[in-house]
Specification:
The complex is a heterodimer of chains A (157) and B (84). Chain A has 157 residues and is α+β, with helices and mostly antiparallel strands. Chain A is built from three helices and six strands; from the N terminus they run αββαββββα. The relative contact order of chain A is 0.20. Chain B is 58% helix and 0% strand. Chain B has helices at 3-19, 32-36, 40-54, 69-80. The two termini of chain B are 12 Å apart. Classes of the chains: A alpha+beta (157), B mainly alpha (84).
């Protein structure tokens, strides 16, 4: 199963500038997912950087990389639930995560997410993020809990 | 080490990791919430790790009881059928 950007918007409550996934290339519900996030120089995180800064200044922020992976995990969990299940995943904890190399504008990140465990309204995912053949991050354990949708997202009018 | 000691040591390790403490900092009867400022999310994380490690199912209703290492051991022993 492949999900375009519109389908991601239908699943996740996130919107610009916090919708940090562009596409899902494959999903096996309940098991794994591969998602894509393209980083560009137009991202709001690069706005307002003074002229003449070194390349390090343009490293994609770790917080956003982790959030982007987490959104991949959220999509996987949402697609793994039984029909009629309500509520949205809320990211609560990351453990044993390692950032292995910086990501820069022009890089296309591929998140490989595995759903490890779903228990007591909580889900645990693991995985890694890649740019080409370079691993850029390792995620030992990402935890999310489910919360009522109207507590997380603004209701559609 | 008796089987009971092994189980308690393993559980202490899990609790310490989730509460971000050293295992020796986790006292047997210290209340997770009062002593270590744990919240309900940490409790679910501890429960989830235990279920995964020992392949047991523990009803969520038991969460309220699992407030110290000693209490966690008792609950898990009951559901995992340990003769500790």
């Amino acid at each position: 199963m492949r999900l375009g950007h519109g389908e991601l918007r239908a699943l996740l409550p996130h919107r610009y500038p916090m919708l940090l996934l562009d596409r899902v290339d494959s999903v096996e519900p309940g098991v794994s997912l591969e998602a894509v996030k393209a980083v560009t120089g137009c991202e709001p995180c690069y706005r307002g950087i003074a002229e003449g800064q070194g390349p390090d200044r343009y490293a994609y922020p770790a917080s956003l990389l982790i959030e982007s992976f987490g959104q991949g995990a959220a999509v996987l969990w949402l697609l793994s639930r039984g029909p009629g299940t309500t509520g949205l995943p809320m990211f609560t904890a990351a453990r044993d995560c390692a950032l292995l190399r910086p990501v820069y504008p022009g890089d296309v990140i591929r998140h490989r997410v595995r759903l490890e465990q779903v228990v007591h309204g909580a889900a645990f995912a693991t995985g890694s993020s890649w740019v080409g053949t370079d691993q850029v991050a390792e995620f030992g354990s990402m935890m999310a809990v489910v919360r009522p949708a109207d507590a997380v997202a603004e209701r559609k009018r | 080490m008796s089987e009971r000691d092994t189980h308690v040591a393993e559980l202490r390790e899990i609790v310490a990791e989730v509460l971000e403490l050293e295992p020796e900092e986790v006292a047997d009867t210290a209340d997770f919430v009062e002593e270590y400022e744990a919240d309900s999310l940490r409790a679910i994380e501890i429960l989830a790790r235990i279920e995964k490690k020992y392949k047991v199912e523990i009803p969520q209703a038991e969460l309220n009881e699992m407030r110290s290492l000693k209490a966690v051991h008792e609950v898990v022993a009951r559901h995992a059928g340990w003769q500790d």
